[in-house]
Amino acid sequence: METGRYPNSSNPYRPKGQVLRDARMWWNSTRNDGFGVLIALGFLLLLAMILVWDTVRAEQRQRVQAERTDHVITLLHEIIEHTTSAESGQRGYFITTDRRYLAPYETARKAYRTTLDQLKTFTADDPQAISQDLVAQIGKLTETKFGELEESVTLIARGEAEVARTRILTGKGLQTMEQLRAAVTRFENIEREQLLYASERAASAEARIVPGLVLMFLMILAVLALGMWQVRRLIDAEVRAAHADELAEARDRADLLSRELNHRIKNLFAVVLAIVRMSGRGDPDAKPALDRVATRISALLNAHELTQSGGAAAGAHLGKLIETAVAPYRSDAHKCDIAGPELILSDAHALPLGLVLHELATNAVKYGAWSQPGGLVKVQWTIADDQEATVTWEEHCSFTPPDHPADERVGFGTKLAESSARQLQGTIERSYAAHGLVLRLVFPAGQLPEPEAED
Q1: Rounded CA gap, 306 and 44, in Å?
Q2: How much of the chain is helix, strand and coil, in % rounded to 5?
Q3: Where is the Signal transduction histidine kinase HWE region domain (predicted)?
């Protein structure tokens, strides 16, 4: 009689219903674990999309407000220009009684109502009551001013210049003009305050996006580690199966789940990269920061692919990880010497170490040994008896590198490298020799791989 066909079914005499119940519980547990990981990844992706979308919306609101403010101020200035031109024409006509001087007046009288209508239409949907009151006040004062001008022009045309002079000297027209300018100035200040508020909101959203995305990616890595742990727990359970064929079947299922999870993780990285790059379209100011975020995400993806290239439990070779980090920049003009013993890193070591190497290679191209032809970068590592690994990054510039003051400002890349060193449970030391940067990263290497036994 055949023994149990599922894990923990070693009793060959159990009822068939009990065997089916055990199999169903085992399958539901495996499926729920995988669904939990995918739900967590989906939730983190949703948070990242919300963060990017909030930033894009803030920038869109800023652009809309800038266009609105510019248009409103232009209309307000046109109203003042129309009123001033009309008043100048009226004064010229009053002094000379030559109707040719009324040309600016006639032009402004025909145009000011159109400008007022445009202002009222453009601000009709403004929710602020004070803005609506100011528009109404500006319209009333403009109508009053043009009414006063038209009245004086009519009196002059009838030959009653003295009556027109008396009314001009009352100062009502001057008072109306001062009130109109005050209302226009107040409206301009309100529009500029709204533009400043929208700009501050956009700047605040842009300041949140980089650390927010980095935090999301770290959380994604934590969920990935949890998923790997669940996969390995499933493999351990299958190892204890009674028959070799059942063990092979269980390993196939675990490997399929691992490949599916890795496939979804890489798709997730690709989606996040696409979101980041799309966020920079149409906004040249935000593009450099988003490009730096994209390159760091690519470095994480490269490190992840190295840890999974040889199977679910293969890990990443330190030498291969270093070669991958420097490969985009390495050439005859930008040389790199890599040397060290065999060392296989776990996922927890490979991912943050890949970020550190990416930052070092990028900075070498921008400011260090690879910023000019003929530079050399030496990367060496050693392993102490207590399983402590020391990685040394040493740059030899073909030129005299600039001095680095002790109070030099710490940039985001340096903070990211220090944060990655803490994830490695190690330390990072940076110094500057006559030939360039020297950086040492010390961290516990953990259990080294044992040599494979010969057949």
Answers
A1: 23
A2: 70, 10, 20
A3: 260-342
Give dist(CA 144, CA 104) in Å, integer: 18
Name the token pair of 429. Answer: 């030391």
Q: Report how many domains make up the chain.
A: 2
Answer yes or no: do 90 and 162 share one domain. yes
Q: Using alpha carbons only, what angle is made at residue 123 by residues 88 and 195, rounded to the nearest 5 degrees?
A: 95
User: 205 and 349 share a domain?
Assistant: no
Provide CB contacts within 8 A for 108, sequence distance 6+: 81, 82, 83, 85, 86, 89
Short-list 1, 27, 32, CA closest to 16: 1
Q: Which residues pair with 392 in a beta bridge?
A: 380, 440
Nearest to 348 by CA among 165, 214, 200, 225: 225
- CA dist., res. 350 & res. 299, Å (int): 11
Structure tokens at 205: 């959203």
Contact 389, 442 (CB under 8 A): yes
Cα(293)–Cα(48) distance, integer angstroms: 13
Q: Which of 263, 283, 314 delimits the end of a domain?
A: 314
| Containing structural domain, residue 183 | 1-314
pLDDT 10s digits, 202-260: 888 778 777 877 877 788 887 777 777 777 777 766 666 555 666 556 666 666 665 66
User: Do residues 240 and 97 both lie within one domain?
Assistant: yes
Residues 215 and 340 in one domain: no
Distance CA 183, CA 127 (A): 18
CATH number, position 330 = 3.30.565.10
Tens-digit pLDDT profile for residues 2-36: 444 334 444 444 454 554 555 555 555 555 666 77
- The three state secondary structure string of 368-430 is CHHHCCCEEEEEEEEECCCCEEEEEEEEECCCCCCCCCCCCCCCHHHHHHHHHHHHCCCEEEE
Q: How far is CA 344 from the centre of its chain?
A: 33
Same domain, 151 and 248: yes
